[in-house]
Amino acid sequence: MFKQILAVCSLCLLATACGAQDAINSVIAMNKKMDQTNTAIGQTNSKMDVTNLAIHNQTLAVALDQMMSPENTTNLFPPTSMMAPGQVFANVATSDEIVQLVYVLLLDVNDKQPDPSLQIPDKAHKGKMTWPDDVTAQWDHDKMAKLTALQVICGLMPDQTVQNIIDSQITAADRYQDTAYQVLMLRYLFIDSFMLTESLLSSKVDNPGVAEQGITYIEQLRFIEEQPFASSIKIATFGMLSSDDNLVADLSPAPGKDNSQTLATLLSSKVKSDMDPKYTTSTDGKLKDRVSKLESKLQAYSKAN
What we know:
The chain is mainly α. The protein has eleven helices and four strands; from the N terminus they run ααααββααααββααα. It is about 70% helix and about 5% strand.
């Protein structure tokens, strides 16, 4: 009997051992499948990253090509035709990509020259050579198109991108610090000239939305003016064939020179003269409060710092 019991126990132990081994084998097989699955997921993510990068780069390339196309660069002032593709580029590009684009295109503006064989004797300066008028006009127009495109992109980029450029290039004293100063100057010129002086402030400011947009532009200018390194924010090109076409600008205060304070004063004046009375006398508490807040901001921004 004892031998029979022992045999049964042995069989049970053997069965248990076999079951445990099967379980171990199953776990091993499952781990292998999980490793394979994780590897497959990693490969898929890697392919998606490559695809996303390709889409990103293509978006930027197409937007820049559209900005610089002949039909969009014929009339540069104002650069209305550049605005839509410029907004796409500004929204999609990283801070590094914008800084590097500015660096490269400014090199083109400053360094590229026509074929020397096109030069002719300069009638005004004996013994010197110059470029024919048509060559000068075409080359300077093309260079101005690049400068204008840079202004559009820098002017339309999100505020966070501006902060990223300041942090990564100026504060960190990185490779493109000087270019970052130029980026800020290009942004300032675009907002001041194209978005405020020649656009919003040249038309009626007759509802709160228009006034609030103007305040946003003024706040973007104030942000640049108030930087501790504001005296370094400047740009000076030297590559135009006609020196009169070079872009030279800085933030130095000067009599009659536009800045956020003078622009805020002008906007405040237009709000008072243009605003539809239905907004200033509205019985809608929220709307009335909205008008009151924008008037208070303009009053504050109009005062000297």
